[in-house]
Design brief:
The protein has 3 helices and 12 strands; from the N terminus they run H-E-E-E-H-E-E-E-E-E-E-E-H-E-E. It has about 180 residues and is of the alpha+beta class.
């Protein structure tokens, strides 16, 4: 009787830890790749034709610096919210600034902003969503389960939306 109850308990515990059907394979890694598609905030862009729009960086170097600062802050804050130290963390950020002219499509400009985010690319007088696909790799001195990295990625997502004005088109995907 005790053996039956113990086996039933173990089966419940082990089944409760299994990934849900249709979810990604679980893994443990110290170097997750965070992949996503987004529209950049104006401050992450610059313009080389001398008509920098309100909110844009003046140079590519300023824009890259702001991107790096925003991404690093979001990752460090997300780690600390879960009680992890950021000591020894390195971030390989593949996001690069875009050279955009912001205005109205009818005026011949190439991009349109909504608020502080560049969300449309002009195709003549028509617009289409302006989406950039990229990734960030975090290198950590400790390995975490994919579910932990997914929770951290959700906090990074929230931080970049609320603090930087990034518009995401999907949740951040975590892979090895």
């Amino acid at each position: 009787m005790i053996t039956t109850v113990l086996l039933a308990s173990l089966a419940t515990v082990s089944l409760g830890c299994a990934p849900s059907p249709g979810t990604a394979t679980t893994f443990v890694t110290a170097s997750p790749k965070l992949s996503f598609t987004f529209s950049p905030p104006l401050i992450w862009t610059y313009n080389t034709n001398g008509t920098t729009g309100a909110g844009q960086s003046l140079t590519v170097e300023q824009a890259q610096s702001r991107i790096n600062e925003d991404v690093e802050f979001a990752i460090i804050k997300a780690l600390s919210q879960y009680g992890y130290s950021s000591s020894g963390i390195t971030i390989d950020n593949a996001i690069t600034p875009e050279d955009v002219t912001v205005g109205q499509c009818a005026d011949g400009d190439a991009y349109q902003a909504e608020g502080e985010t560049v969300v449309y690319a002009c195709n003549g007088v028509e617009t289409e969503p302006y989406k950039i696909s990229t990734s960030i790799t975090v290198k950590s001195p400790i390995a975490l389960a994919s579910s932990q990295w997914e929770s951290i990625a959700l906090r990074v997502y929230t931080g970049l939306v609320s603090s930087s004005g990034v518009k995401f088109y999907d949740l951040i995907k975590v892979s090895q």
